[in-house]
Structure formats: C-alpha cells, structure tokens
Design goal:
The structure is a single chain. The chain has a single domain, classed as Rossmann fold (3-Layer(aba) Sandwich), CATH 3.40.50.1580. The protein is 34% helix and 31% strand. By secondary structure, the protein is an alpha/beta fold. A hairpin with a 2-residue loop joins strand 2 and strand 3.
Length: 230
C-alpha cells in the first residue's frame, strides 16, 4: 500500500486534517505519532513534525524510511512577504528555498545548498494536478496562487527581513519547515508539493496575528487537501 504523506508542524494544522480522515490508526515510531487513514478513499498518513527545519527534515526521513509513500504534501500556515497576498490566501509552491542558508563566502548565491542547488522544484505533475483542480473549483472568497515558499529557522517579524526575502528570492510566503521537507524528498526521489495559507504578515507584531489566524489557515489547507484527494 502506498500512502499520500502529509507533514505539518503544529497541533492545530494536524487536527483540521485529522477531522477529515476516516479509519484512523496510530503507529508510534520514536516520539512521532503517525496517523494512517483515508481522505476521500485515498490512503494517507499524517504526521506532526514540530516547528523548524531540523524537526521537519528528521520527521520526513522517518516517514519515508518506514512507510511506502507515493508523494508528500507539506501544509500549514505561513507569513506573507508578497504585498499582494492577504490573510487567508493560499500559495501552492512551484519551488521552495532556504532563505537562511548562506555559503556565499565560497562564491555561491544565498540559499544555495551543496548537492541540491538554489531551490527545490516541486513535482511538476502535482503542480499541474492542483492547477487543473483549481480551474474547476467554484469562486472563493480568497485567492489561491502558484508561488515560491522561503523557509528558515526564524519566525519572521521584521519588515526589513520580509522585504529582503521577497526581493532576493521573489518569494511569496515565509515559513519554517517547507524547504527542509522538500530537500529530503528531493534527495530521496519522492515527489513533493507544499500548500501554505497566509496567517500573518511580518510587521513587528505579527505573532498575535499568527495566533489569531492559525485555525483559519489550518482549516483552509485541510479543505484543499480534502478536495485534492477526491
């Protein structure tokens, strides 16, 4: 049996997806609780990694080492660094980057990772499948677009940092896990895509905005995954 692997960072993100799963069973590996079940008759496995790139990478590797995974979806909340995005909008990643990875001292561009490159491309087949699904969806009260996700081990609150990430990487959103999940999938030759919903805009005090909108962002990501699994 092959699963759709779904990796999220936080309890709130996991719970919204779990509500849409049936026939749920739990398998404990180390301190990780893998939840297997079905979403719209598609076999899925849901795991909460915890926050940050190391947690995300470690959890993704444990997932791929212990289960047959068809492809991986990373989902959750993110901060907008594109001024055209609003709270509740969704970005489906075309590719992902690590904005805090820096070996420019050795002549490489910011974000370049040895053996990986400047970015990790999301699976073109999955991106195309999401595009086709979106064309047939009814009009929504929020926007869904293809874009670029920039990850780093920083909860971005700085307006200056937000602008630099947007300018340097042409990024749409910033998070703390996505590119690490993508890197592991790339190195293991597993198709990968990311869905990120805007919970906040870095403005010096967006930690409160994040808390206020985490449930909304989690619910919208879960709904999109549910629709994709039809």
């Amino acid at each position: 049996m092959k699963y759709i692997g779904i990796v999220v960072a936080m309890d709130e993100e996991r719970e919204e997806i779990l509500e849409l799963m049936t026939n749920v069973q739990v398998k404990q590996i180390y301190n990780l609780r893998f939840l297997t079940g079905k979403i719209n008759n598609r076999d899925c496995i849901l795991i909460k990694s915890g926050v940050g790139k190391v947690n995300a990478a470690r959890t993704t590797q444990v997932l791929l080492d212990n289960f047959e995974v068809e492809f991986v979806i990373n989902a959750g909340a993110a901060g907008a660094v594109n001024y055209l995005l609003n709270i509740g909008d969704i970005v489906i990643a075309k590719h992902v980057v690590q904005h805090d990875f820096d070996i420019t001292a050795f002549g490489h561009s910011k974000g370049y990772i040895t053996g990986v490159g400047d970015k990790v491309q999301c699976d073109l087949g999955l991106v195309s499948a999401f595009e086709n699904m979106l064309k047939n969806m009814p009009e929504l009260s929020y926007n869904i677009k293809l874009g670029i996700v920039a990850s780093g081990d920083i909860f971005c609150t700085s307006i200056d940092m937000k602008n630099k990430i947007n300018s340097k990487f042409n990024a749409d959103v910033v998070d703390m896990e996505c590119a690490a999940v993508g890197q592991v999938c790339y190195l293991d030759s597993i198709p990968f895509i990311s869905i990120r919903c805007i919970s906040d805009v870095p403005d010096g005090q967006n930690e409160k905005t994040f808390d206020d909108n985490l449930k909304l962002a989690s619910k919208r990501c879960a709904k999109l995954i549910y629709d994709f699994c039809k």
